[in-house]
Specification:
By secondary structure, this protein is α+β, with helices and mostly antiparallel strands. It is built from three helices and twelve strands; from the N terminus they run H-E-E-E-E-E-E-E-E-E-E-H-E-E-H.
Length: about 160
């Protein structure tokens, strides 16, 4: 997918291409379409359908925050987000791996595998484990099970 982003970017940029870099304020974001509208801080113009990424990385800026845009001439004034002062969400894709950060949570998936689910399954399995001791087999103590459950809750607060 990251190669697709370079191909798409390459279509926009040629040796004769000129680009203007501007600071703008985010007016609204369409996260499903991965576009936004922003208003230039020096010219007061609205920039529509600003691309929030090109396939390998997408950044969702906070409404009303400052962003740095590249306005590319010669292609119907294509505009691309270069930087967001206050991102609300970031998605990075490399092959089957997808990482996402948003609202104090983090998500990591590789194909059908989700880190949160894998860790939750591990903790649930540990709570059921039988431990060999010199006195014979036994389960985790209630205090250990409580500690494992607290670890699970802490992970679930961190991971989406």
């Amino acid at each position: 997918m990251i190669n697709d982003a370079f191909v798409e970017f390459g279509k926009l940029i040629t040796p004769d291409t000129r680009a203007q870099i501007i600071w703008a304020e985010v007016k609204d974001v369409d996260w499903n379409a991965k576009t936004m509208t922003a208003t230039g801080q020096t010219d007061g113009l609205d920039y529509y359908d600003v691309k929030l990424g090109l396939g390998g990385q997408y950044v969702k800026p906070k409404q009303g925050s400052k962003v740095l845009l590249a306005v590319i001439d010669g292609h119907n004034m294509q505009t691309i987000l270069l930087h967001a002062d206050e991102p609300e969400e970031i998605i990075i894709r490399v092959g089957e791996l997808e990482m996402e950060t948003k609202q104090n949570k983090w998500r990591l998936e590789n194909g059908s595998q989700n880190l949160k689910q894998v860790l939750n399954n591990l903790i649930d399995r540990l709570k059921q484990a039988i431990i060999q001791t010199p006195a014979g087999p036994g389960n985790f103590s209630p205090a250990d099970v409580t500690a494992l459950e607290q670890i699970k809750q802490n992970l679930n607060q961190l991971l989406a």
